[in-house]
């Protein structure tokens, strides 16, 4: 079955660490975007090999800026061109502090999973990040979402921030646990090029924690969350049983997905597509061709195998150790096993616990 990602490129303001494509927009631009993404949906159905949809993810940007009617319009366009199964997971990213009255309307529109960009419990760190909410607004939004009957919630949290101590991180994780949401995503800060953080780091205006401090934050949080009953099912993601993000699992299991909107990506079989990362260029492509997807690459069989291994090793379940994978990387796997970095359990290749923090180094062996 197919996953559908919809990129909504609008934000009230851009965070200091963010390199995703987003921008402020007028009401007229948002309305034009809605019409175009519906047009692209209709055209995209002729491109994909799969019509049955079991996950939809509205990301950005800030999808909530489209309002319940805008979200409903997008979901109706998808439903009108694809077959959405009854148990579909429909996630919407949003920022804390959104109008509390919108949540019954969002639920009525079809949203059944909400992901909140909480990031940190300390207001000084939120200001450093360029966020415009408080932790009290995180709490208020969680309560409002639940009152609307939406119980499948995720909080994004960040560690390794400028000026963040281990005690700060422990306070953030404890505050998140107190909200009893069923899913938590823990992301280490990565300073991306051409962001304010990139410029400030080069100018010496911010200092990041040392590698040992990052590692201590990671291991402390992992132990704390596992003790609290969360499954560390993916490198950065923790969930109560049954609350894993089904849409993101598609990426890690290398299952087909369609991307709609500017800067969205698509993948099925051996083909990868990318939409223009500019609202104006995307609009021009949609008006000219219907679907804006541009062929990025066709993967060889070895490249597909490598992707399966690299993405699968991100998961606690690992990757099925097929004869093809074993034949291609038998020496690499033997070396990693000898160093205690991977293990074979049944027919699956998995990272050992000690390798999770250096997962990227392990995965690089398969490139």
Automatic annotation (TrEMBL):
Cellular component, GO annotation: cytoplasm
InterPro entries: Aldolase_TIM, Coproporphyrinogen-III_oxidase, Elp3/MiaA/NifB-like_rSAM, HemN_C, HemW-like, rSAM, rSAM_sf
General function of this protein: Probably acts as a heme chaperone, transferring heme to an unknown acceptor. Binds one molecule of heme per monomer, possibly covalently. Binds 1 [4Fe-4S] cluster. The cluster is coordinated with 3 cysteines and an exchangeable S-adenosyl-L-methionine.
Protein name per its UniProtKB record: Heme chaperone HemW
PROSITE patterns given in the database record: RADICAL_SAM
SUPFAM superfamilies in the cross-refs: Radical SAM enzymes
Gene Ontology BP term (one): porphyrin-containing compound biosynthetic process
Primary location group: cytoplasm
Record family assignment: Belongs to the anaerobic coproporphyrinogen-III oxidase family. HemW subfamily.
Location of the Radical SAM core domain: 1-234
């Amino acid at each position: 079955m197919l996953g559908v990602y919809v990129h909504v490129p609008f934000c009230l303001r851009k965070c200091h660490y963010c390199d995703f494509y987003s921008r402020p927009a007028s009401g007229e631009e948002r309305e034009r975007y809605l019409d175009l993404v519906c047009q692209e949906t209709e055209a995209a159905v002729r491109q994909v090999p799969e019509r049955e949809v079991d996950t939809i993810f509205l990301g950005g940007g800030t999808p909530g800026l489209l309002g319940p009617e805008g979200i409903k319009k997008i979901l109706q366009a998808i439903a009108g061109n694809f077959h959405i199964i009854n148990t579909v997971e429909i996630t919407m990213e949003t920022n804390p502090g959104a109008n509390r009255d919108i949540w019954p309307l969002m639920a009525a529109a079809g949203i059944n999973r909400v992901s909140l960009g909480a990031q940190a419990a300390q207001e000084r760190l939120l200001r450093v990040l360029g966020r415009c909410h408080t932790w009290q607004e995180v709490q208020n939004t969680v309560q409002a979402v639940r009152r609307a009957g939406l119980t499948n919630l995720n909080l994004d949290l960040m560690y390794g921030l400028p000026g963040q101590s281990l005690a700060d991180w422990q306070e953030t994780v404890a505050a998140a646990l107190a909200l009893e949401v069923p899913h938590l995503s823990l992301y280490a800060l990565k300073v991306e090029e051409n962001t304010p953080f990139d410029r400030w780091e080069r100018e010496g205006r911010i200092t990041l924690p040392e590698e040992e401090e990052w590692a201590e934050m990671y291991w402390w949080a992992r132990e704390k969350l596992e003790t609290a009953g969360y499954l560390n099912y993916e490198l950065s993601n923790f969930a109560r049983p049954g609350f894993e993000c089904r849409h993101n699992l598609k990426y890690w299991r290398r299952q087909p997905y369609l991307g709609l909107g500017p800067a969205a990506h698509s993948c099925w079989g051996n083909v990868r597509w990318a939409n223009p990362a500019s609202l104006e260029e995307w609009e021009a492509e949609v008006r000219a061709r219907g679907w804006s997807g541009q062929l990025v690459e066709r993967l060889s069989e070895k490249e597909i195998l490598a992707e399966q291994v690299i993405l699968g090793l991100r998961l606690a379940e690992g990757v099925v150790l097929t004869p093809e994978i074993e034949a291609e990387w038998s020496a690499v796997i033997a070396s990693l096993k000898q160093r205690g970095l991977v293990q074979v359990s049944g027919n699956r290749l998995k990272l050992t616990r000690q390798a999770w923090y250096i997962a990227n180094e392990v995965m690089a062996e398969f490139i």
